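Encode chain A's predicted structure.
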Amino acid sequence: MGFPDLVSTEWLAAEANAVDLRIVDATWFLPNEEQDARAEYEAAHVPGAVFFDIDGIADSFTSLPHMLPGPDAFSTAVAGLGIANTDRVVTYDRREMSSAARAWWTFRTFGHAVVSVLDGGFDKWKGEGRPVEPGIPRIAPAVYRAILDPRRVASLEAIREIVAHGGAQIADARSEGRFNGTEPEPRPGVRRGHIPGSSNLPFDRLVAGDGTLLTAEQLQQRFAAAGIDPNAPVVCSCGSGVTAALLAFALEQIGANEAAVYDGSWAEWGSRDDTQVDR
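Encoded structure for chain A:
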């Protein structure tokens, strides 16, 4: 049996001291949420966890938020976190597993197969009375070599092609209000609305009240209700490529083919004057 995509707090507690296990806190917040993910990590995290800065481990040559870095930049950053290619990686966050899923997707996109998401994240771990620690752990640098899998990433040009000619479904993980253009966007200069022909499935509808992922049957029902066929090609989008990863993660949990993520997402599409917007 291969390494699972989703692991429980019980599993992590039993495996936490394994020499080949690396725990990653990938917490991230929207700009308008006014929360500091790194400060929350330094105040308390799962023992031994390192902080995966989604905004920092990113392409520094674009104005778009937290776009994928190149393989060399990712390799350098991950090696600096003490993670090697052969290590098992568990990601978690404090926000409905969406940014943990983004870290999961990033590792998988760069060829790391043994990576999973902690079901229920930090809140479930802490709520069960499991140990936490403050500060920043000492890290022994590792050696890492990333190899990009381009099938997992959709570009602006790919989305233009889908809008014009079809070939894949576009699933938007933003809230219903943002999708329909009735709520403001959190980033200045970004129009309201959605990519023509896309379907809306807000990411928070994939998790239960306790923050854990819904069952496979429930996930299938959510995708069906949104008009998304898991058996056909899907590209996942959102505000900036973070919550879209939870849709891609959920699709894999129900046996769907690997979904791509539109990395630029609405931050790119909605900020341009040469892209069509529907409401």
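The mean pLDDT is 96.
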